[in-house]
Amino acid sequence: MLTIQNDKFMLDGKPFQIYSGAIHYFRVLPEYWRDRLEKLKAAGFNTVETYVCWNLHEPKKGTFDFGGRLDIERFIRTAQELGLYVIIRPGPYICAEWDFGGLPAWLLKDKNMRLRCNDPVFLGHVSDFYAELFRRLAPLQITRGGNIIAMQVENEYGSYGNDKKYLNRVREIMLANGAEVLLFTADGTQKSMIAGGGIDGVYKTLNFGSRAATAFNALEGIQEQMPKVCMEFWCGWFDHWGGKHHTRGYQGILKEMNAFFDQGAGFNFYMFHGGTNFGFTAGANHYLRYSPTITSYDYCALLNEYGGYTPAYHAVRKLMHEKQGLPLGELPPEPKLQSIGKVHLTEQTGLFENMDRIGEKHYSPMPESMEYYGQNFGLIYYKTTVHGAYGMCSMMLRDLHDRAYVYVDGELKKTFDVMKPDGLMKRIMKKDGLLLNIKNDQTELGILVEAMGRVNYGEHLTDRKGISAVNLNLQTVMDYEVTTLPLDNIEKLDFTRGAEKYPIFFRGTFKADSKAECFVRLDGFTKGVLYVNGFNLGRYWKKGPQKTLYLPGALLKEENEIVVLELEHCDKPVVEITDKHDLG
To answer: Which of 46, 389, 565, 569 lies 20 to 30 Å (CA to CA) from residue 136?
Structure first.
C-alpha cells in the first residue's frame, strides 16, 4: 500500500516516487490500450493516471455502461499486466475539456439542480453512481492485490467552490464504497484554490505547467513535511474552434522535469497521450464568450493523437532513464499509416426529410432544453406556427448557449452564433435578433439548435442546450412541436428521400486493405459531423484549426461506409482519406 512517511512515499515498505502519465481510456479505442501503456512503460514511467467519465458510464439515470471502450476494469488490468500502477480520478466532476466536465446531462433536467455542493439530491446521484463504479474499482486496489495506488476526491474544486461539507461527503461516499488507498485532492497554485479545494486529512497535490522550481511554495503553511506531487504537469494544451493549435517545445518540458527531480518531487504528465474527443464528447470553456473544444485532444502530448512518437517523447524518455539509472530498451513500433485517397459521396438525403426516422417528437407549450426531453447530445428542432399577419417584428431567442439556425416557412433566415466576439454584448443589449415581416395568416418558425459541447470549467457549468423561449417583439411565442435528434441512429436514414436544403447527409463507400491509421480531410465541407461504419468520429469545422479527423484503423473493414452530416454548405461531396495528420 502507498503510504506517506515524513516527506516520502513508501510502497509496501520501500521508498517510491510517482512518475505518472495521463491516458484517458475513454478517449482511446480499447484495441490500442496495450500499445499506449507499453509506450508509457518504455518511456520510464511507473504509473498511469485516468479520469472516470460519469456521463458515458451512466447515460440515463440508473442505466450503466462499463463495456467496450468504457471497460475501465480491462484498462486497469492491462496496466497491471505491464507492471504499471494506476491513479484513479473518479470525479464526480473531472473537467478534462470533456462535455459538462464528465457530469451526466440528465442532471440538468431538474431545474433546481445544484451541482458540486452539499445538496442531498446531487449527492444522492453521486452515491448511486459510485456504488456501481466502486463495485468494479475496489477489487483492483493494491490493498486487494490490484494496482490502484491512489484516488482523487473531486477535482480542482478550489477553482469552483469552497463547500467543505460537500468535499467530505464525497470522501465519505468513496470510503463507504470500499476506497482503501491513499486519497488526495488536486488544485491550482493560487492560495484560494488550495484553501477552497483541500480538506483536512486528505493529501494535497498541485496542478501547473511551469515554474516547477517554485510552484510548491504555494503549499507553505498548508502542508509541510510531505512529498511533493504535481498531479497535472501540463506539457501541452487543448484547442478551441477558431483558435490556434497549441504546441510546446520539449526544452521547456525538460527544464521543468529537472526541477522536479532536483526537489525529489513526483509528477503526472497531463497528457502523456491525449487521444480523441470522439462523437459529441468535447466540452467548452466560457469566460468572456463561449469557446467549444475541437475533436482532437492531441494536447501536444508525448504521444500524438494516433499514438505516434513525438520529439518530446524521445527527449523525456532519455531523461527519465538517466535519472532513474535505467537502461534504454527497444521501443514498441510506430503506428502504421495509410493513404486511401479520395472518396466520392454519391448519395445524399436531408435531415428534415428524415426527422420522422431519426428523431423523436415531443409537444410543449414552451420550448425546453435538450436535457428536459432526455437528450444528451446532437441537434434539437423547435417548430411552431404564428397565426396572423404580425407585420414587422423583431425575433429573439432566449437562453441560446451556442448555435442555432432559424427557418421561416422552411427558408433559412439567420444563424445565431454566440461564439462571435461581439455576441455577448449584442445579447446584453438585446440587439442580436432577426427582423421579420410576417404577412401571412400562418407562418411556420423553425429553430434548429446544435449543441457544440457543454461548458466543462468555471461558473457557467450549468450549460443547458437548446432554447427556453422565442419572442416576437414583446410577445412570447408558444405551442411547439419539438424533435430531438441525438444523431446516434444514422442507420435509419433513408437515402431515397433526397434533400431539398441543408443540413444534408452525404454517403459513400471505400475499400481498405489494411487496418493502418489514417485521417479524413473535408476541404470542400463547412461544418458538421463525420461517421465511418456507424462510428461518430466527431465534429469538423472549416474555421479550424483542425483540418483532419483521426480515423482509427481498428474501425476499418474491407468495405467501409462513410457518412457526413453537413449543416451548412458543401462545394463538392468528396473527402480524402490520407496519411497526413493536420491540426493546423
So the answer is: 46
